[in-house]
Amino acid sequence: MQARIKAMEGQAVTSARFYLWREYLELCKPRVVALMVFTSLVGMFLATPDFVPVEALVFGTIGIGFMAGTAAAINHLVDQRIDGLMRRTMGRPLPTGRVDPISALIFVLALGGIGLAILAVLVNQLTALLTLLSLVGYSGVYTLYLKRATPQNIVIGGAAGAMPPVLGWTAVTGQIDPHALLLFLIIFAWTPPHFWALAIHRRNEYARAGVPMLPVTHGVAFTRLQILLYTLILVVVSVLPFVTRMSGWLYLGGTLILNAGFLYHAIALWLRDDAKLPMKTFGYSIVYLMALFAFLLLDHYLLI
Questions:
Q1: Kindly report the CA angle at 44 between 42 and 50, in degrees rounded to 5?
Q2: Range of the domain at 136
């Protein structure tokens, strides 16, 4: 009987430990980090006509992923009060108490320290420096200040989120290239229509939390117009890789199709007061970015 009780207790401890790891994984926002790592990988492959060196591919991906997860966890720490007020985020580990702030802070320091060390020692110092600056920009400038200070928070703060392909590029070459900056510009232009679509859907929660998102401060109609205008900017920016001969016809064809879809969603959102359209636009924007970078990669190797 005692052996059975001990076995059950052991199973309970094992289950609790596994569950705790899931909580820390959630702190890293794995879906967001996966998209960032994917764009950084594309940056790596576009940086060379050959296959990416194994060291840069493995250690660059791990280091950039760890640092992106660190930035996400810092966001959880800083925004735990706001997260507790919003239905979308109130179930996160910190607002619910499943992870305490001290443990989360230790996790942040450990994950960030390991990630930065990997980049500095096993990749190159430029990538480590740029990644650190990106983390400070997102966690410090955006999360601590801009998010609560201005409705243009996502526009200005979007620079940090647009850095992964540049980091991937520098991980391979050790230098910043103008073509890498084009990849940065694409994500920078993509971020406002992507995030403002979500903000329209969650505007009441942002208002309750005291976050001055654009639909809260300037209204939904104004935000819809801004989404359309930034989508038009994105359409122009997204064809620059073809114009500069960084990419070829395969990329151009795929991008034009993707742009047509984004414009359709943006125009529909601007013209119609449909509660479902903001999240449809948000969902399409994620597919758009993943597919666009996939076309960049296919074009690079199929038509080089």
A1: 105
A2: 25-176
